[in-house]
Amino acid sequence: MTTIVWFRQDLRLYDNPALAAAARRGSVLPVYILDDVTPGHWRMGAASRWWLHHSLAALAADLGDIVLLRGDPRVILPALVKSTRASAVYWNRCYEPFAIARDTALKAQLSRAGVEVESFNASLLHEPWDVATRGGTPFRVFTPFWRTSSMQAVAAPLREPSRLNIARANVAGDNLNDWRLLPRNPDWASTWHTFWRPGEAGALARFDAFIAGGLASYALLRDRPDLAASSCLSPHLHFGEISPRQIWARLSVEQHEPAKRAGINKFLSELGWREFAYHLIYHFPTLADENWRDAFDAYPWANHQSDLDAWQKGRTGYPFVDAAMRQLWQTGFVHNRARMVAASFLIKHLRIDWRLGEAWFWDTLVDADLANNAAGWQWVAGSGADAAPYFRIFNPITQGQKFDPEGDYVRRWCPELAPLPSEHIHAPFNAPVDLLRRCGIRLGTTYPYPIVAHDEARRAALAGYEQIRALSDARDARASV
Fold first, then answer.
1. pLDDT tens digits for range 62-106
2. Chain-centre distance for alpha carbon 45
3. Which of 283, 310, 327 is the last residue of a domain?
4. Do residues 306 and 389 share a domain?
5. Last-in-domain residue among 262, 283, 304
6. Is 475 domain-assigned?
7. HSE (CB half, 13 Å, CA atoms) of 321?
8. Catalytic residue numbers?
9. Residue 70: beta bridge partners?
């Protein structure tokens, strides 16, 4: 009774429903397929591939063996069933639109061939179709969504299978190194091992460290990128090295400590935003590619390539934005507050289409997640569900002063500005000339001048938003006639 377990975004042993069910059934043949060919597939970005390499290596060590294959699962899995005489294929669900279409077709194909096929929820607290308004429609606003979702019972996490009988099938799988997931010439991720430990053990260690350290102060300090106050669990969650149910269960125990309650409630609400993003992309499958509010199709983007290049390289002349983009390049990660400010700057100061920012984050973030990425960018743009008001335009200077008050975040990622005193580090272009000279800073040479003026950029952004607002109002007026 061999069961193929198709691993995807569930690279763990603990609380893995597909693996647990297969283990109860008999011998297990673990398989991972690198799928770059499914139509509509967002091909995994370079940073994610780095993480995947190390996470698969960790999973293979934990399992003892895993078959690695590359290509179209709709071709590979039926052939693998035939060659191994497996009687069942189990997997945990993915919710990206292309994955749903692929998996639905594959399930029908295998079922017609007499193969038992089962899929499970391993990625979310609740399935997207299990959380709905009183009218049975999808939620479009976060607060009522989370109020409803958080009141529903969460299933307890499953234990790691006590006995795992790995099938020794004669399958010619690939060698992980042959996939060339790691960067070469140059190896831009050469220091990433100092920031990250991909794999289930790394995820659990990161969670333990957060509970012991940052959880109690999370509600108060989570917006401070200069402090180690966030969990950094997002890449582990995306690759399924830890499950939301594990987090929920552990924090339910931690709730008994009064000092941690505020932090726990805030952290769980952030987990709720992840759930909301998946709710949206399931019910609105064009979320990653199209404006959720179609009135934004008329927004007058500037889309200047030179501005996009400066933003990507952390050379905008606004230190808080530049620190965020350099942190991204050097670690594959950006603190959430800095991430929002950098995204707002691209959209509202540079008037560059949010989809270009989404694509850059997709390629450079180790926690690149289609649902979260799309929902986040559309939230900042004002085009998405429960979006930030269009007139909210983050001032990159005051945001830095508020959330990086001593300038330590900027000093770490923009070291050429490190000698500046805190009161000038977020706006070096306003610092006295003699101070800049004493600090060895030459604007335009060692650090760029701002590529746009904040006040002018804000006016241009608001004019663009007023333009689409007028078009939307006119369309609504015609519809009411």
1. 999 999 999 999 999 999 999 999 999 999 999 999 999 999 999
2. 12
3. 283
4. yes
5. 283
6. no
7. 32
8. 270, 273, 301, 336, 354, 377
9. 34
Shared domain for 460 and 369, answered yes or no, is yes
Residues 81 and 137 in one domain: no
Are the C-beta atoms of 362 and 328 separated by less than 8 Å? no
Of 10, 19, 23, 13, the C-alpha closest to 52 is 10
Domain identity same for 236 and 138: yes
Q: In sequence order, what are the residues at sequence separation of 6 or more whose Cβ sits closer than 8 angstroms to the Cβ of residue 233?
A: 203, 206, 207, 210, 242, 247
The domain that holds 361 is classified in CATH as 1.10.579.10
* 481 in a structural domain: no
Residue 305 lies in a domain: yes
Residue 80 sits at the vertex; the CA angle it makes with 78 and 82, to the nearest 5 degrees, is: 70
Q: Are 465 and 318 in the same domain?
A: yes
Do residue 72 and residue 133 come from a single domain?
no
Residue 218's CB is within 10 A of a number of other CB atoms, namely: 21
d(CA 123, CA 93) in angstroms, rounded, equals: 8
Look at residues 407, 458, 450, 410 and name the one whose alpha carbon lies nearest to residue 430. Answer: 450
Angstrom distance (rounded) from CA 11 to CA 204: 13
Q: Can you spell out the DSSP letters for 242-294?
A: S-HHHHHHHHHHHTTSGGGHHHHHHHHHHHHHHHHHHHHHHHSTTTTTS-SSG
Distance CA 448, CA 315 (A): 6
CA 60 to CA 198: how far, in whole Å?
13
Distance CA 292, CA 295 (A): 9
Asked whether residue 216 falls in the same domain as residue 356, the answer is no
User: How sure is the predictor about 481, in pLDDT bands with cuts at 50, 70 and 90?
Assistant: low
> CB within 8 A of 82, min separation 6: which ones?
none
Tell me, yes or no, whether 340 and 395 share the same domain.
yes
Tell me the pLDDT of the chain averaged across its residues: 95
Count of domains in the chain? 3
Structural domain of residue 354, as residue ranges? Answer: 294-470
CATH number at residue 86: 3.40.50.620
The answer to whether residue 417 is domain-embedded is yes
Token pair 């690149």 in the structure block, residue: 368
Closest CA to 1 of 19, 17, 24, 18: 24
Alpha carbon distance 34, 25 (integer Å): 26
Q: Express as a percent the part of the chain with pLDDT over 70.
A: 98
Residue pair 222/266 in contact (Cβ under 8 Å)? The answer is yes
DSSP code, position 348: I
Question: What is the structure's pLDDT at 335?
Answer: 97
User: Which residue, 358, 329, 342, is CA-closest to 192?
Assistant: 329
Per-residue pLDDT, 106: 97
